[in-house]
Design goal:
Blueprint (H helix, E strand, L loop, with lengths): L2 H11 L3 E5 L3 H12 L4 E4 L3 H8 L8 H5 L4 H5 L3 E4 L10 E6 L4 E2 L2 E2 L2 H10 L11 E5 L5 H14 L8 E5 L18 E5 L2 H11 L6 E3 L3 H28 L5 H8 L22 H8 L7 H24 L3 E5 L14 H11 L3 E5 L5 H8 L15 E4 L4 H5 L2 H7 L5 E4 L14 E4 L8 H4 L2
Parallel strand pairs: 1-2, 1-4, 2-3, 4-7, 7-8, 9-10, 11-12, 11-13, 13-14, 14-15
Antiparallel strand pairs: 5-6, 8-9
Helix pairs in contact: 6-7, 9-11, 9-12, 12-13
Length: 452
């Protein structure tokens, strides 16, 4: 049997297992889906509380099991999946595949310390007396430049490549964690290896879980594909925002919705800002890996435009002369507990600088977490909506969607303005004196003029 066949057979028969570095949304789901498909998984995370909670059946990743479509508890009880706080547990000849799922973002910029740390720990594979190759699959988003310098060059320094003990592949995740139909199983996956052998083995391993796996020429092409596809979205959203600023009297949300009915055009919605750690960072990944970054002028402008939108929103708020603002949603997207680059954080920081009293409600964060992240208090939804002259609906959490309109209206007395980032309340009939504006609608950032 070939080396490729041996690895697949060992995984499917339980002789060997996969190791996952990182217990966030990506790592948790990778380990869980492989366990569900009969492949044992072991997960490491530097956060001991995450590890302890996982092994006790506590999951601090809202809606992750709903998105996956199954309960992990039986797999955990059967020994198909476990988490550890000891990274050396993963340096084991019983591990055939290492999935790297660690953060590659920090302070709104690409970050390589976590992945560099994992590569350093994988160097200890040299101590194992095993002739079987080890496959390393990077699922984290990474630029070509950092892939070369932080991964490939560092792995070469370990001498592992000379002893043919590892094969490297890149297969960035493309999931949408708020839509159960867009998962590791259903979305086509892209994979490229440092060598053709690595591509073939990674293709077969990913095919255990994923229905469609597409091969890129090599690991560098695979890495760039993820960044480029998110850059397309970054540019599109930035243009939508700029159009809404350039044509304040026009309902640009309506225009863009109708533009999107053409078969080859996507629909983009103006917003408070471009949140999340994938889309806003994509231009940075593309720029830093380019041979001629000065040619990518559109990307540089999209970065500025994305960072500027929270300031535009705050300028409108300050012009309205309100003194109290309630922010609904700390997360950048509904029903996720991810606040990386969330427009809420940027808006809150600016409002605090100008003496505006702001509070946040987010059902997925504790009061202590909100205080630590934003330095402000939280409030109860919908009971304490009446505290504020203005409400900013940032995240489309289910709680805000399913709460009856009558219950919300009971508590919003005293509110003058509502700015809705995603339009979840656009079909409500708001009584006077409340003025409601969906992001991108007519005069949404000039609302004090619109009501005269």
């Amino acid at each position: 049997m070939s080396a490729l066949g041996n690895v697949l057979n060992d995984l499917k028969t339980g002789k060997r297992k996969i190791a996952v570095w990182g217990l966030g949304y990506i790592g948790y789901s990778t380990a869980s889906f492989y366990a569900k498909n009969g492949v044992k998984s072991i997960v490491f995370d530097v956060d001991k509380h995450k590890v302890r909670g996982f092994n006790k059946g506590e999951v601090n990743l809202p809606n992750i099991e709903y998105w996956m479509g199954f309960d992990v508890s039986p797999l955990r009880a059967a020994g198909m999946i476990q988490a550890t706080k000891h990274w050396r547990d993963l340096i084991n000849k019983d591990v055939a595949v290492h999935f790297i799922c660690v953060p590659t973002e920090k302070d709104a910029m690409p970050y390589d310390e976590a992945i560099r740390d994992v590569i350093g720990k994988l160097a200890y594979l040299r101590q194992l007396k095993s002739s079987a190759p080890t496959l390393i699959i990077i699922e984290s988003t990474i630029s070509i430049d950092r892939l070369k310098k932080v991964v490939v060059e560092e792995l070469k320094k370990t001498k592992l490549d000379n002893e043919k003990r590892f094969l490297l592949a890149v297969a960035p995740r493309r999931d949408w964690f708020v839509n159960a139909e867009k998962s590791i199983v259903t979305i086509p996956r892209i994979v490229g290896g440092y060598t053709p052998e690595a591509t073939e083995l990674a293709f077969e391993v990913l095919s255990i879980v994923s229905r469609t796996v597409l091969k890129a020429s090599d690991c560098y092409h695979a890495a760039l594909i993820k960044s480029v596809e998110n850059t397309y979205r970054q540019v599109g959203i930035s243009l939508a925002n700029q159009l809404s600023l350039a044509y304040p009297e026009i309902n640009m949300t309506e225009v863009l919705g109708l533009v999107g009915t053409k078969w080859n055009i996507d629909t983009y919605h103006p917003s408070f800002g471009i949140g999340g750690y994938c889309i806003p960072l994509a231009p940075h990944y593309v720029l830093e890996g380019a041979s001629f970054p000065d040619k990518l002028t559109i990307l540089r402008e999209s970065i500025f435009s994305g960072e500027d939108m929270p300031r535009q929103v705050c300028a409108a708020i300050l012009k309205s002369k309100v003194k109290t603002v309630g922010v609904l949603g700390l997360a950048y997207k509904g029903d996720l507990k991810v606040d990386i680059l969330s427009p809420s954080k940027a808006i809150i920081a600016i409002l605090k600088e100008h003496g505006i009293k702001a509070k946040v409600n987010d059902p997925y964060y504790t009061c202590d977490e909100i205080q630590k992240k934003c330095g402000i208090e939280t409030f109860a939804f919908p009971q304490e909506l009446g505290e504020f002259e203005m409400l900013l609906v940032v995240s489309d959490h289910s709680l805000y969607r399913y709460t009856p309109m009558g219950e919300i209206l009971t508590h919003v007395r005293g509110c003058k303005y509502i700015l809705d980032n995603v339009g979840i309340w656009k079909n409500f009939s708001w009584p006077s004196p409340i003025k409601y504006f969906e992001a991108g609608s007519s005069n949404w950032l000039n609302f004090t003029c619109a009501i005269k």
